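Posting for a labmate who doesn't have an account.
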Amino acid sequence: MNMWQSAKCKRILEHYGFDNQQEKLVEECEELIEAAQGEDWDHFIEELADVRIMVEQMYYALDPDQQKQYHEMVGFKIERTLQRMRDEKAPTVPGSDQ
């Protein structure tokens, strides 16, 4: 998301308010789940975009410390997944408990 789109998301959040947009996030997540289970890529892309916009808005509802915590959590989760991927590729030793 570019800085202009991010700024517009912040304006939308300020206009509609956190509570309303939090409910909208739940709705959009439900629609994304449904689209992800189907085979219509156009619909999936549309719902993915809707969720991305809502997540961006929720980010702006966080205070600076929470935004920092969010970025740290994203980094942690990415690294954890990469570690799991490395572990999956690790050769198993015959006769070991793995």
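Reply:
Got it, the structure tokens are right above this. Residues 3-62 form one domain.
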